[in-house]
């Protein structure tokens, strides 16, 4: 199977094409996030790792499409769109809601007897560690208060009423998807798993992040970094080093 040579698809954005045979990392945005969030990651890892960033329906250039508010269903749709890219094992990186989505995609790949290169789960408790959360049921101001508290949305969006109105449906949809996600017990993953968490993340405790290790028979690594829910913004270099070491071990000094 030959991978596409452009990024013209609605779902998959390839900002920096890499030479054939390089590891591929699929990046899955957080609630309310978009593919462009991972442009700096793609730029930093290129050309050693080829980044495929996923654009969910209902945002930016897909804003007129209906959102998907069910993590398992979104996983099925994303995996279907990744079909042309599966000529080699894919690694998956997801932050927050994207981590739950990455887990479900990895399960689907392995259920097909496929191979997942690595799952990087960032800023999200393990699937088997549920919480009862209902932020998605709050009014607009209540929802936005939580978004502001987590500091994950571009301040320009929060300060622009028109942009905010355009973004709110996707944000609420993704909160609903993340908060209603229910882990269904099944076989553990076979691929390596690395979990990243902030030591003061209100959405994930260190113990909840450590529980990712129970979801794989492969190797597991937990990296705790200073910061809250969007700790990755302050520690991008450390996270990229960990990804590079896992995916390109022979090129890391």
UniProtKB/TrEMBL annotation:
The residue range of the signal peptide is none
Residue ranges constituting the Thioesterase domain according to the UniProt record: 24-246
Top-level taxon in the UniProt lineage? Bacteria
UniProt KW keywords: Hydrolase
Q: Which family does it belong to?
A: Belongs to the thioesterase family.
Q: Does the keyword Hydrolase apply?
A: yes
**Which organism is this entry from?**
Polymorphospora rubra
Q: Which GO terms describe its molecular function?
A: hydrolase activity
Recorded protein name is Oleoyl-ACP hydrolase
Q: Does the keyword Hydrolase apply?
A: yes
Q: Name one Pfam family in it.
A: Thioesterase
Name the InterPro entries on file.
AB_hydrolase_fold (IPR029058), TEII (IPR012223), Thioesterase (IPR001031)
């Amino acid at each position: 199977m030959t991978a596409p040579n452009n990024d013209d698809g609605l779902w998959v954005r390839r900002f920096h094409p890499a030479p054939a045979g390089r590891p591929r990392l699929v990046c899955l945005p957080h609630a309310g996030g978009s593919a462009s969030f991972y442009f700096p990651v793609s730029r930093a890892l290129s050309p050693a790792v080829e980044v495929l960033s996923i654009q969910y329906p209902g945002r930016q250039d897909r804003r007129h499409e209906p959102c998907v508010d069910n993590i398992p269903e979104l996983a099925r749709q994303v995996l279907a769109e990744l079909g042309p890219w599966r000529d080699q094992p894919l690694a998956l990186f997801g932050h927050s809601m994207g981590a739950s989505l990455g887990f479900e995609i990895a399960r689907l790949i392995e259920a097909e007897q496929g191979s997942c290169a690595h799952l990087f789960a960032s800023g999200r408790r393990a699937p088997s560690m549920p919480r009862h959360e209902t932020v998605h049921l709050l009014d607009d101001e209540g929802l936005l208060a939580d978004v502001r508290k987590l500091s994950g949305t571009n301040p320009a969006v929060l300060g622009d009423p028109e942009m905010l109105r355009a973004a709110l449906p996707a944000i609420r949809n993704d909160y609903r998807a993340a908060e209603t996600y229910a882990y269904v017990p099944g076989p553990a993953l076979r691929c390596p798993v690395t979990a990243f968490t902030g030591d003061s993340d209100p959405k994930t405790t260190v113990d909840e992040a450590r529980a990712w290790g129970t979801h794989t028979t492969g190797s597991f690594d937990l990296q705790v970094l200073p910061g809250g829910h969007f700790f990755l913004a302050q520690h991008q270099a450390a996270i990229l080093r960990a990804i590079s070491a896992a995916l390109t071990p022979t090129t890391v000094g």
